[in-house]
Amino acid sequence: xxxxxxxxxxxxxxxxxxxxxxxxxxxxxxxxxxxxxxxxxxxxxxxxxxxxxxxxxxxxxxxxxxxxxxxxxxxxxxxxxxxxxxxxxxxxxxxxxxxxxxxxxxxxxxxxxx
Length: 114
What we know:
The chain is about 0% helix and about 55% strand. It is built from no helices and 9 strands. A 5-stranded parallel beta sheet has the order 1-3-5-7-9, with no helix packed on it. The chain has a 4-stranded parallel beta sheet with strand order 2-4-6-8, with no helix packed on it. It is globular, with a radius of gyration of 13 Å. The two termini are about 20 Å apart. The model has no long low-confidence stretch (mean pLDDT about 85).
């Protein structure tokens, strides 16, 4: 089985109020995100915390400007990104990122297994 996000598609958890964004967990043998596809947890002009992303996969592939991000555009903290995979490949301006406008940035944890 494979989960595929591409052509500017997105799966997102977000908040624009005082509450926190929801957390997201994706578990699949192969996760392919490409062509500006995006998986994100964020706050939008909010005091809430951005969502935490948990990606559990045998193979994570980000291609052609694909992104996995957590962010806070308000006063709240960005969420965290946790990746557990046997292999991870980022190509052609793809990224895993945690950023914030004014709160604390999120943590990125990469766990690689055989």
